[in-house]
């Protein structure tokens, strides 16, 4: 009966969204970066090294890493100086080289695309020396202009986890904006999962440890879809509307899966069903899903899982730092 009521709820929600958000529904599409990064044509035409440079759209992160490994330090430096928008976003390129290319955008920026609403990834901690790496994948309404909260979460998690852990705030996909169909469907999550997979492949190609993924709200949908293709050691979801999977087995991952949901989180009112592509499926904190459920009774709100002093932040730090 409860599932039937939730099905009716999502049906009503669908009618509301379709009937009232025609103008909104294309907002994320209009603001999503598309096409090659600026500077790609010049990069591909550069014959300074006497050979073709790897195509940013076609080369795998492993191929990119192998290419840079064959260059001298001066050659790498020149490419970063001549083609910063490409090198700064090239998964598999050396970390410090990407920092240098993205220096005008900020400190330890690992990726930066200012087009549309913008995409960014920024590191807290010493990524090159870290023995543990965590990646925070945020949910809706996060872009360059609203990145501060995700960056703060990364700083708080890194401080709690310790110096041997580096944390990446990854706003590297186009998130849903406002309330509408993009929030209720997996369209943006599917594109985000591809980008997240490539990003984590780039970390591996750069010789970094397998990351733990911390996925908030709609970001957990992204992580659920990316799960089969990433080498994440752990996938931690919080305030999740679902992962587009019936249970942990359906995620097809070797990562440990953890879930947290506060009793004060409005997400609990979201139907945990998927009907005709709307909704994101089972609640990851439900008993039948199979994730390890983390205590979250002291989390006061949907956006407070990384708040200092909460049981969730302490557990997240233990997972990120390899202590749990």
What's the short story on this structure?
With 324 residues, the protein is α/β, with parallel strands linked by helices. The protein is 38% helix and 13% strand. The chain is built from 14 helices and 8 strands.
Characteristic terms for this protein:
DUF1023 domain-containing protein; 14 helices; signal; DUF1023; alpha/beta; Rossmann fold; eight-stranded mixed beta sheet; single chain; 324 residues
Mean pLDDT: 91
CATH class: Alpha Beta
Q: What would you say the CATH architecture is? A: 3-Layer(aba) Sandwich
Terminal CA distance: 38 Å
Indicate the topology.
Blueprint lengths: L1 H19 L1 H4 L1 H5 L8 H6 L15 H9 L3 H10 L1 H4 L7 H7 L7 E5 L5 E6 L7 E6 L10 H14 L3 E7 L9 H4 L2 H19 L5 E6 L1 H9 L7 E5 L9 H4 L4 E5 L31 E2 L17 H10 L4
Parallel strand pairs: 3-4, 3-5, 5-6, 6-7, 7-8
Antiparallel strand pairs: 1-2, 2-4
Helix pairs in contact: 5-11, 6-8, 9-14, 11-12
Describe the fold and architecture.
Strands 1-2-4-3-5-6-7-8 form an 8-stranded mixed sheet, with helices on both faces. The protein has one domain: Alpha/Beta hydrolase fold, catalytic domain (Rossmann fold), CATH 3.40.50.1820. Helix 13 links the parallel strand 6 and strand 7. The protein is built from 14 helices and 8 strands. The N terminus is likely disordered. The two termini are 38 Å apart. The longest helix is centred in the N-terminal third of the chain and has 19 residues. The radius of gyration is 20 Å and the shape is globular. Helix 5 runs parallel beside helix 11, helix 9 packs across helix 14 and helix 11 crosses helix 12. It is of the alpha/beta class and 324 residues long. Helix content is 38%, strand content 13%.
